[in-house]
Amino acid sequence: MELIQAQNLTLGYPGKIIQENLSFTIEKGDYVFITGENGAGKSTLMKTLLGFTKPLSGKITSSPELKKNSIGYLPQQNGIQKEFPASVREIVLSGFQNKTGILPFYTKKQKDLALKKMEELEIENLKSCSFKELSGGQQQRVLLARALCAADSLLFLDEPVKGFDSIIREKMYSLISELNGKGLTVIMISHDIEASEKYASKIIHLKQLRKEQ
Q1: What is the phi/psi pair of residue 92, to 5°?
Q2: Quick check: 2 and 63 in contact, CB under 8 A?
Q3: Tell me: the pLDDT tens digits for 100-111?
Q4: Considering just the CA atoms, what is the radius of gyration of the chain in Å?
Q5: What is the rounded distance in angstroms from the CA atom of residue 147 to the CA atom of residue 156?
Q6: Residue-wise pLDDT tens digits, 28-60
Q7: Cα–Cα distance measured from residue 186 to residue 190, given in angstroms and rounded to the nearest whole number
Q8: Which residue has the higher pLDDT, 104 or 115?
Q9: Predicted TM-score of the model (pTM)
Q10: Phi/psi of residue 182, nearest 5 degrees
Q11: Cα-based distances in Å from 145 to 10, 22, 102, 140
Q12: Would you tell me how many other CB atoms lie within 10 Å of the CB of residue 95?
């Protein structure tokens, strides 16, 4: 089943084109790597697919099955996120905020699912810990669990293993591959060509536009 179709996209900002003539499809169950040079527009493409940024031209068509509250997004970490003063459990549960509607609290089903996601990512023993006291790898697992609470059908990941050593990177790639194997569609930005060749079902490789001399 086709979830997203991009037709002749031109990406960028007023007065600056970053990419042009991009066309591709994302099928249900795909594991897509977005790769390419720095400045080639990888994050811009992801933000465009998420609806945060509009394309300069072209069209993105989404399946009616793909609802906004069924999409998870794990952006790159920043300093504020790393120092966030909340417990692991609170952060993971916050992934359901777009699903609570007018209710000011989380349901038992959501609490149980949050615990299940923490167990899958092997962080259930950290649920009462302060997020800011965790290691970088542990924090990334917490944020991934949060994104998974939001993601019923599609997960966006912006360089989820950036800054980690090879052992942690491989564990994260393997974990995300397992989630994809269970039916979750994944779109990931990565500079890791070797990992993309190992795990991806599709690769969108962006080259930086070169101006003619």
Answers
A1: -65, -45
A2: yes
A3: 665 668 889 999
A4: 18
A5: 9
A6: 999 999 999 888 999 999 999 999 999 999 999
A7: 12
A8: 115
A9: 0.87
A10: -90, 5
A11: 33, 31, 23, 9
A12: 23
